[in-house]
Structure formats: structure tokens, C-alpha cells
Amino acid sequence: MTLARLNDAERAAALNDLPEWSEVRSGKAIERQFTFADFSEAFGFMTRVALLADSQDHHPEWSNVYNRVTIALTTHDADGLTQRDLTMAKAIDALL
Ligand code: H2B
Description:
Layout: H1 8-16, E1 22-24, E2 29-35, H2 39-56, E3 61-65, E4 68-73, H3 83-95
Antiparallel strand pairs: 1-2, 2-4, 3-4
Helix pairs in contact: 2-3
The protein binds ligand H2B.
Residues 57-59, 74-77 line the site of ligand H2B.
């Protein structure tokens, strides 16, 4: 299923609900940095995000350096930000 990209007003409203996430790539993605106690905590989190992502068939662009994880969410099929990214961001926040 391909969803439409959010317009400027929809993006602004959505970001109000996701205060830890920032717009990047001219509004085509949102990004959040997470810091954990150590690598084990960070990788445990990534494992849970990976299972969530596969169950939603919506996959993050991310990187990990020791105890830090950076996640960017964008919808490749729509070349921008969609409701799928917002749903995923909320689900990721709920894991914490
Ligand atoms: N993840 C993200 N972030 N964007 C997509 O457009 C996307 C995805 N598409 N995961 C899915 C998989 C698609 O490739 C499969 C075929 O459903």
C-alpha cells in the first residue's frame, strides 16, 4: 500500500505529537537519536525495533555506534514522510 506524502500542515501537526523527533532531508524524513547505557542495551533496543519494523513491513534507516542509535524514518515508496512513518515513530517511542 502506498500512502500519500504528508503536506506541510500535516507534517507540522505530526511533529507536535513527536517532540523527540526532528525533520530532516527537507521534510522528507524524521530522525531521532537514542543513547543507552552500553552496547548491549542499544542492540537490545535495535532488536526490538527490527521485529517491529518487520511486522509493520516498514523499515528504518539507522546507524549504531556503541551505545548510540540514530533512526531515520521515511517512506521510500512515497519518496517522503507518510502516516506509516508516524505510526512507526510512535511505536518505537513506546518501546522505551
Ligand atoms: N520501508 C520503508 N521505510 N519504506 C518503504 O517504502 C518500504 C519499507 N516499503 N519496507 C516496503 C518495505 C516494501 O518495499 C515492501 C515490498 O512492502
